[in-house]
Amino acid sequence: MKDCLPASCAIEKFTAADLSTLREELTQCGLDSRQTAELIGAFLGVRGYGVSNSAARGAATRIESDGCSLQSLQEELEKVALVM
User: Counting beta carbons within 10 angstroms of the beta carbon of residue 61, is it exposed (0 to 12), middle (13 to 18) or buried (19 or more)?
Assistant: First the structure.
């Protein structure tokens, strides 16, 4: 297994502008967890990634509990995004 620091291992799949836009939608639209999961799925789908419903729901829960920071949003999206 390869050892590296988190910053050097980061996979930058999403731009800061995209993440900021998604974060605004998540925090200002008053979405419930199911709607948040659907929005995550749509966000990834537009960018050529897939995501399972259960993974999107799990990510939505973790994002909401982390306060929806850009870093946690990036990390969660990287965890659940499936290359299509």
Answer: middle
**Which residues of the chain register pLDDT less than 70?**
1-12
Q: Name the one residue in this structure whose structure tokens are 């259960």.
A: 54
In this predicted structure, what is the pLDDT of residue 66? 73
Question: What pLDDT shows up at residue 59?
Answer: 93
Q: Is 2 left (phi over 0), alpha (psi -120 to 50) or beta?
A: beta
CB 62 within 8 A of CB 76: yes
- Report domain extents, the chain: 31-84
